[in-house]
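Each record in this resource describes a single protein on a pair of labelled lines. With that in mind, the following record should read easily:

===
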Amino acid sequence: MQLIADSGSTKTDWRLLGADGSVSQARTVGFNPYFQTREAISAEIADKLKPLVTEPVTDVYFYGTGINNAAKAEVVAESIQAVFPEAGHIEAHSDMLGAARALCGHDAGIACILGTGSNTCFVEDGDITFKVDTLGFWLGDEGSGGYLGRTLVQAFLHKEMPEDLYQKFHKRYPDVNRDTVLENAYQKPYPNRYFASFSKFLFDNRTHAFAYGLVVRNFEIFFEKYVEKYPDCRKYKVHFTGSVAFYYSDILRRVAQERGITVGVVMETPIAGLTLYHQTA
């Protein structure tokens, strides 16, 4: 049996590929080797995943957040090996490589993640060959839900949005004010998730000219700062995964078309594409 995983900070989607070609699904909490020990990761996998595994495990392909060097990859791989000692082959890679393989398969193209944060790379034959780095939430993440929400909250606090939308926002989020925003931004953990939560308001009001314009500008900046810095970005298809790309795909495609960029696949999560990639490897 092969195990394939796509892991974020909050959840991990698993696919279990049986020797007879069957595919089953499972979900555990998310794993991040920066914040969790080998023991904690192993315990969760043993408790939630192992009971669902009905055959000996031969191969494991794990893609996740926080796996950005060999040491962190080793933490995850050893955690999995402790639960499935019979597995002869275990790989642990970054979520960016997972997105790239899910979106592009074995073809050349540009892969993008637009979710709570943003990330991009150029991939060829299943490997990342070039990357335009983002600078994280506070200095970058343009195109993401975190950036969208941050821009929206700024417009609200500065009273830069139309009165009708201002009142609608205030009614939906009565506790949002300068003090609560600064507390969530600088004192509480995961400010990116806090600001990304406001992206839903933009989605629900995307037909409003102000909200629509804010989303459009968000994607324009994303293309300017990242995609258009890739050589021959208009020669290759640009593919996307993540909730922001998926739910705003109509606006995303429109902005791309206006800039002469061809959007290929847009998927909410990479796990189905990853499963296909490893089935055809």
Summary: The domain at 2-87 is CATH 3.30.420.40 (Nucleotidyltransferase; domain 5). The two ends are 15 Å apart (CA to CA). The CA atoms of residues 67 and 94 lie 5 Å apart.
